[in-house]
Design a protein that fits this description.
The protein is α/β, with parallel strands linked by helices. The protein is about 30% helix and about 20% strand. The chain folds into two domains: about 10-110, Udp-n-acetylmuramoylalanyl-d-glutamate--2,6- Diaminopimelate Ligase, Chain: A, domain 1 (3-Layer(aba) Sandwich); about 110-235, Mur-like, catalytic domain (UDP-N-acetylmuramoyl-L-alanine:D-glutamate ligase). The strands form three sheets. It has a five-stranded mixed β-sheet with strand order 9-8-10-7-11, with helices on both faces.
Length: about 240
């Protein structure tokens, strides 16, 4: 059951990204990137994965109650999809969906990072230690500090464990919104190279970026140290950094 979640027009979520005809401008009550988590009224965001593609689950998402689905212009719908699906709900192509999913999620949750001072911390080692030291210092100064990272998510002193250093783009915005709702005014966020490469942090407005170090790691994913470093560097190309 969804409690106190907003209902937002599809055109508002996709403003500046994709025009939405009036006939398709439905009210969206939730977001999901996993068809198994769809509830009636949700927008399904079909993201590419390392093993599977969200496009393959559009039909399942619609059967679960999704009111619309968006997918990338560089991808195509599976031939097996029922032609009637596109008649029942809008199937909308957008460019660069992995980078824009977070922006859409941020809009849905009211752009929560804008109401906080957000510090992003990246590096091969030391992200967690850095976030702990900063959280303790800010808390000592009277700030209402929150953390998202390896240890978990929550207000400082009330952190709950999580499975990823950087959550997926939709979950991240929901977590930031929840933290803001708890009164947090500072957010210390560990940002992994995987998360940066996959655009999970998009939609989050960082005020400060911290780099700890770069040493050989994750080359099975990034391919080379140059590409690994380039992924880390993405954090520092934010418009609002101090």
């Amino acid at each position: 059951m969804k409690l106190n979640l907003p209902h937002i027009k599809l055109s508002s979520l996709l403003a500046g990204i994709k025009g939405v005809p009036a006939i398709d401008d439905l009210s969206v009550s939730g977001l999901a990137i996993d068809s198994r988590n769809i509830s009636a009224g949700d927008l399904f965001i079909a993201l590419p994965g390392t093993r599977q593609h969200g496009n393959d689950y559009i039909e399942a998402a619609v059967s679960q109650g999704a009111v619309a689905a968006i997918y990338d212009t560089d991808s195509s719908l599976p031939e097996s999809i029922d032609a009637r699906v596109g008649d029942d709900v809008p199937l909308i192509k957008i460019t660069n969906i992995t980078q824009r999913a977070g922006i859409i999620a941020s809009r849905f949750y009211g752009e929560p990072s804008r109401a906080m001072t957000v510090t992003g911390i990246t590096g091969t080692n030391g992200k967690t230690t850095c976030s702990i030291l900063l959280a303790q210092s800010l808390n000592h100064l009277g700030a209402r500090t929150s953390v998202i990272g390896t240890l978990g998510t929550g207000l400082w002193g009330e952190i709950r464990s999580s499975t990823h250093t950087t959550p997926d783009s939709v979950m991240l915005q929901r977590q930031i919104s929840d933290l803001r709702g708890l009164g947090a005014d500072q957010l210390l966020m560990e940002v992994s190279s995987h998360g940066l490469q996959q655009g999970r942090e998009s939609g989050t407005e960082f005020n400060t970026a911290v780099f700890t170090n770069l040493s050989q790691d994750h080359l099975d994913y990034h391919g080379s140290m140059r590409q690994y470093g380039a992924a880390k560097a993405k954090l520092f190309y934010q418009n609002d950094l101090n």
